[in-house]
Amino acid sequence: MVLVTGCDEAGRGPIIGPMVMCGVIIEDTDIPKLEEIGVKDSKKLTPKKRKILFPKIKEVVKDFELIIVEPAEIDEALNSAHLNLNWLEAIKTAMILNKLKPVKAIVDCPSVNIDAYASYMGKFMKEKVEIILEHDAERYLEVAAASILAKVTRDNIIEDMKVKYGDFGSGYPSDPKTKAFLKENWKKYPEIFRVTWSSYKKVAQPKLGDF
């Protein structure tokens, strides 16, 4: 029996709302149970199916850890001379692994340079863990389970935000509804936007005619 952790994130690209990081820890002998309950790459599941799986996953895994990364923290990282979104994600992943203390971890890697990402993440690790970093790691059931918990958690946050702020669509910069909401509300609700995104700067930047 080996304790294995899968790590993934949800909401890396939107201009509105947080990014949610998640890690699950599970005994390797229990991983087939994830397949039995229907866990697979969360992109292949409907939001309704993910919500149904959420409590079932929590019953199968030994423990899990969720980290909510608010827009202000993302902006702070992007404005820093020493950080970027990849490094921020690496730090949060290390925090998750330090909390869960697995023997082995499979992590969905956002960086094209896996070796550099592994080296940077290693600086924040307190325990020795066998780490597998891969792109599209949701093919591993433990990573898919983490992704589902992250996506459902973020979806719930977004639903609550829409009640408070109004319907802003998907929150992605390419969404026409999000674009319209941004144009009308960038000054009114700055706390919900990632102000370092180019789409935000384009709207917020004063035009020559404004002077």
Main beta sheet, described? 5 strands, mixed
Largest sheet, order of strands side by side? 3-2-1-4-5
The CATH homologous superfamily of the largest domain corresponds to Ribonuclease H-like superfamily/Ribonuclease H
- How many domains comprise the coordinates? 2
Helicity, in percent?
40-55%
The sequence of SSEs as H and E is: EEHHEHHEHEHHH
First and last CA, distance? 68 Å
Question: Treating each run of at least 4 consecutive H or I residues as one helix, how many helices?
Answer: 8
Structural class: alpha/beta
Please write the CATH class name of the largest domain. Alpha Beta
- What fold name stands as the CATH topology of the largest domain? Nucleotidyltransferase, domain 5
Name the quaternary structure: single chain
Characterise the protein shown here.
This protein is α/β, with parallel strands linked by helices and 211 residues long. The protein has 2 domains: 3-163, Ribonuclease H-like superfamily/Ribonuclease H (Nucleotidyltransferase, domain 5), CATH 3.30.420; 165-205, Orthogonal Bundle (Arc Repressor Mutant, subunit A), CATH 1.10.10.460. 45% of the residues lie in helices and 16% in strands. It has helices at residues 31-36, 47-60, 71-79, 85-100, 114-122, 141-165, 176-185, 198-204, and strands at residues 3-10, 19-27, 63-69, 104-108, 130-134. Strands 3-2-1-4-5 form a 5-stranded mixed beta sheet. A hairpin with an 8-residue loop joins strand 1 (3-10) and strand 2 (19-27). Helix 2 crosses helix 6 and helix 4 (85-100) crosses helix 5 (114-122). The protein is globular.
